[in-house]
Write a structure and sequence with these properties.
By secondary structure, the protein is of the alpha+beta class. Helix content is 28%, strand content 29%. The chain has one domain (3-260): 4-Layer Sandwich (Deoxyribonuclease I, Chain A), CATH 3.60.10.10. It has 9 helices and 14 strands. It has a 6-stranded mixed sheet. The protein has a 5-stranded mixed sheet with strand order 6-7-8-9-10, with helices on one face. The radius of gyration is 17 Å and the shape is globular.
Amino acid sequence: MALLVRTWNVFHGMTKPPERRGYLAEMVRLVTEDQPDVVCLQELPVWALSRLESWSGMKAHSAVARRPRVGSAEVARLNTQLNLAFFRSAFTGQANAILLQLGLRPLDTGSILLNPRGFRRRVAQELGLPPIVRRRWVRERRVCQAVRTEGLTVANLHGSAAHDWRVADAELMRAAVFADSFAEPDDVLVLAGDFNVIREHSKTLEELSGADWAFTKPIAWLDQILVRGAPSTPAKPWPEERRRLQGKLLSDHAPVEVRIG
């Protein structure tokens, strides 16, 4: 099994620094133009989900974390066009998506909420989280989605940004347990996305790369692709020049990719 896998937090199509207009279609076309096998996307506006397949030429599987607050997804899109940098997800909601080349036939899909109330309550008590962190944690739903094909399971997550590394770290373990249970025992398992925790502050990343879990080692910063069950290259972020368009830096995150097999 030889696969090119990528992940990208597309920042609702915004540039860095943010501008009034967005470049989401251009981002999706850029990250898929050389026909990778799998692309995991985070921070998508909900209105974009119906357009992903036409932009990418790939099969899209999505999971909505937060629905638009005002009207339909299309109404939200029109509202945010006034000033994307100002409105962002306030109107458009937020979602994740896994894009698959057409030759990878999906056998099953699923998702899990990363920060449900009972989980937040238990972890907050165990970690002694201060009230301000607990309030930040509840502000936005976060999800992990998974797609299983023949011999391959891909899980895509976007961890919470609660200003405490331990929050996203707890969510990461919840996502890993979900992905492990969703996959078949002999599957190659890919756990990818914006984890919102770095290896220097993550007990979970250390555990996942240990002998029991046997995932590949994490790289620096928030965006990761961990692989289990097949040889793979080290995960590698794109250089800035590869994600520039007309001199503009697309997203505040770089795409990350690995080759499997």
